[in-house]
Amino acid sequence: MKNLFRPLQIGPFTLPNRIFMAPLTRCRTEVDHIPTALMAKYYAQRAEAGLLIAEATMVMAGNSAFWREPGIYSQAQVEGWRLTTEAVHEAGGHIFLQLWHGGRACHPLLNNGAQPVSASPLAITGEEVLTPEGKQPYVVPRELNDNEIPAIVDGFKKAAKNAKAADFDGVEVHGANGYLLDQFLRDGSNKRTGPYGGPVANRARLLFEVLEGVSEVWGNDRVGLRLSPLNSYNAMEDSDPIGLVTWLADRLNGFNLAYLHLMRGDFFGRQQGDVLTPVRERFHGVLVGNMGYSPEEAEAVVAAGTLDAVAFGTAFLATPDLPTRIWANVPLNEPDSATFYTQGEQGYTDYPFWRPISAGEGRP
After folding, report:
1. What's the number of domains the chain is made of?
2. What local confidence, expressed as pLDDT, does residue 355 receive?
3. Residue 339, in any domain of the structure
4. Does the predicted model carry a pTM greater than 0.85?
5. 179 catalytic, yes or no?
6. Contact in structure between 318 and 333 (CB atoms under 8 Å)
7. What pLDDT, on the 0 to 100 scale, is given for residue 360?
8. What angle in degrees, to the nearest 10, is found between the helix axes of 149-165 and 205-218?
């Protein structure tokens, strides 16, 4: 596994390995979406990652899609997140915060009755959202007016400033998995006309405006982006996902991002295709892959230059010392899906470590 443990330069940081922790929503906040000391413990346990990417975090109030997900729009949330960044840095790790707006994936029962917003008035179908009243069907969102969109961009920019105040090392813009920016990107959810609808250049306008605003705060080399052109989660589709991501890959070079985080497939297997090859051919920056990689496959694709790093999701959730175990070639813990979105330590901070590395043995 020597290639996974080659250092990697991300902006100003020399990362010790190419094993990233993918952003994973865990619903462990307190009231008002305030991060907790328990969350700090969880992330610090996983600080061996080359880079930790913290879970999807609300950039604006009133846009909850997971009931107890974190926010970064209030001072109390900034202070709560600072517990995590301090713990991770003390453990020698680096951590980016994923900035997120749920769009039509939000629900009135999670947002004091407010109707969610989206690119077009099309509801998520075939799935349900967890609310204080149990699982509920999604509702039809309100189409954002063009003159409301600058406030969305400003919300991302203010969240980026708050992330800096919370002492994160950078941020990842969430443009994937059927949330607001993705809802604008893909033609299955964006049926609007005008400057933010129609051809791909218009559909990508909001994403690019957000990247520009966030980069003004952080500098381009501390801003990452996540995309999922094939993923049908949240009832998403596009008529030409390969064409979409190919077009994006060319134009994202102009942003000089810290990295592009690309989900290679579809959770449900409905949309097929190879998105990695055209992106690798066109995107000149650091490319991070995600979705179902084993350590062996991750080593192979990094060795081949297909990817520069691989982000692990449930494997890192269940195995806090994942890099050490990959280095030592020992089995990983099995994730307990029943505790993914519950509260408390069970299935969160109680997964066992393998063992400390002995003196002189070397660290991954």
Report:
1. 1
2. 74
3. no
4. yes
5. yes
6. yes
7. 46
8. 30
Residue whose tokens read 């290639």 = 3
Tokens of 175: 């443009």
What residue numbers bound the domain in which 64 lies?
A: 3-334
The domain that contains 45 carries what CATH number? 3.20.20.70
Q: What is the pLDDT of residue 162?
A: 98
Compute the distance between CA of residue 324 and CA of residue 354 in angstroms, rounded to an integer: 8
**How high is the pLDDT of residue 1?**
84
**Strand locations in the chain (E):** 8-10, 13-15, 19-21, 51-58, 95-100, 117-118, 128-131, 134-137, 142-143, 170-175, 223-227, 259-263, 287-290, 309-312
Q: What is the mean pLDDT of each run of 10 residues along the chain (364 residues)?
A: 96 97 96 96 98 98 94 98 98 98 97 97 95 93 98 98 98 98 98 98 98 98 98 96 98 98 93 95 98 97 98 97 95 96 95 71 52
Contact 96, 55 (CB under 8 A): no
With 0-12 CB in 10 A as exposed, 13-18 as middle and 19+ as buried, what is 160? buried
Is residue 221 assigned to a domain?
Answer: yes
360 assigned to some structural domain: no
> What confidence score (pLDDT) does residue 123 get?
98
Report which DSSP code applies to 168.
Answer: -
Q: How far apart are CA 18 and CA 9, in angstroms?
A: 10
Q: Which run of H or of E encompasses 278?
A: helix 276-282
340 backbone φψ class: left, alpha, beta (φ>0; ψ -120 to 50): alpha
Select which of 138, 179, 196, 293 is catalytic.
179
Does the residue 200 lie in any domain?
yes
Q: How far apart are CA 315 and CA 322, in angstroms?
A: 7
Paired tokens of 344: 């408390």
